[in-house]
Amino acid sequence: MGAADYVAIKDLAQYEGEVVEIRGWLYNRRSSGKIHFLLIRDGTGVVQAVAAANDVSTTAWEQLEQLTQESSLIIWGTVSRDERSPGGFEIHLQDVRVLQIADDYPLALKEHGVEFLLNTRHLWLRSPRQVALMRLRDRLMFELECFLRQDGFVRVDTPILTPNACEGTSTLFETDYFGETAYLTQSGQLYSEATAAALGKVYCFSPAFRAEKSKTRRHLIEFWMIEPEMAFYTYEDNLKLQEELMTQVVGNILEHCADELEEVGRDIKPLERVKAPFPRISYDEALEQLAREGLPLEWGDDLGAPHETAIADHFDRPVFVERFPAQTKAFYMEPDPNRPELVLAADLLAPEGYGEIIGGSERIHDYDLLRERIRQHELPESEFQWYLDLRRFGSVPHSGFGLGIERALTWVAGLDHVRESIPFPRLLNRIRP
Ligand code: 4AD
Ligand code: MG
């Protein structure tokens, strides 16, 4: 029991034979003459409450008669085991207090179109599938943070308003900062590099914003990203960390979220194969393979969604695509010592066609090279003085990566579109509700 004196539906097993108070909403009802069968949801589960006219007061019975879908209510009744009931328990209702009789609920229990569901997102979130998804999302974030903390990482938050472009200048959201131009952050990485030099192993966990004009199943305008950054980690250390992280996180989600995965209809077999080490394919090899499969790219082109899917289809677990042409990637990546036209960067592609879930790299630690890259990318050098400073005062090799929460959840939950993976999606042409 929490601070208040009522019971969560998920905990009913502990109260068999007792009278409990439950607070929730009417999910559905069925009535046959002198008996009402109420399906009540409280966010932790759904339970059937049975109310017989003979067992409750006339006032209570009259209230029950008026209940509409999503009416809010408090009930009192005895808990009994019942295998046929959802959750395995049933409540024999003794009394009820109705808080509000809901208006005609727009999301009646039938199929609806996507646009309608998105317009009604504030209510759609109440459906069992969406509740399961939000629980999976919560668990995913929890497990990611658990792993990092167990491994000695410190969470250090990074700013949302910034004058710096981290991931290219084409997707910046501009805003006015008292007469100066500021942007909504695309990534906390540059700041995390500073905090890594202060604390060693850090991560930031923040919304990120990309004014991407692309309307795909994978792109959000506002998304959440967790970004570990590690002083002294090499490129190899970085990949190993990602493998261990994903293995533990997916394993723990399978262990703790079996009900949620079932609710969303996820086939868990592919998830059970997520075990380190993950296969690797170089960018060059990927290009050759893509050409053989009728998806040719010019050397230097970035991989699009169909390319990522075609590459990942060859593997039964996440795969690293590594060593990209420098020109394809961001300005801060360390060159491959054997082939300086490449960078020590890897994208982790989820299996089953879900695409990139992690982007990471070793960072340039040499002052002169970094300044040269900032110039090549035509970034305003004055805004990067502090970032260059990190290479003047105790520069060390360091690496990091960013994992997009919604991309990862879309894969783990087996969704066909990223829009269901965040409570209130911001998409191209959608900022409401
Ligand atoms: O590959 P990205 O752009 O890498 C960075 O931002 C680095 N600064 C991260 C780092 O090294 N600290 O983005 C990282 C991840 C992607 O792999 C993807 O999961 C997610 O962020 N992501 C998006 N998710 C949803 N919608 C978008 N528009 C996304 N853009 C990136
Ligand atoms: Mg990327």
Protein described:
This protein has 433 residues and is of the alpha+beta class. The chain has two domains: 9-100, OB fold (Dihydrolipoamide Acetyltransferase, E2P) (Beta Barrel); 121-421, 2-Layer Sandwich (BirA Bifunctional Protein, domain 2). The protein is 29% helix and 28% strand. The protein contains 13 helices and 17 strands. It has helices spanning 58-66, 114-119, 121-124, 128-150, 189-199, 235-256, 258-263, 269-272, 283-292, 305-312, 367-376, 385-389, 405-413, and strands at 19-32, 35-41, 46-52, 72-81, 89-100, 154-155, 161-162, 173-177, 180-184, 201-209, 222-231, 280-282, 319-325, 335-336, 339-350, 355-363, 398-404. Strands 6, 10, 11, 12, 13, 14, 15, 16 and 17 form a nine-stranded mixed β-sheet that branches. α4 crosses α6 and α4 (128-150) crosses α13. The longest helix is centred in the N-terminal third of the chain and has 23 residues, at 128-150. The structure holds 4-amino-1,4-dioxobutan-2-aminium adenosine-5'-monophosphate (4AD) and magnesium ion.
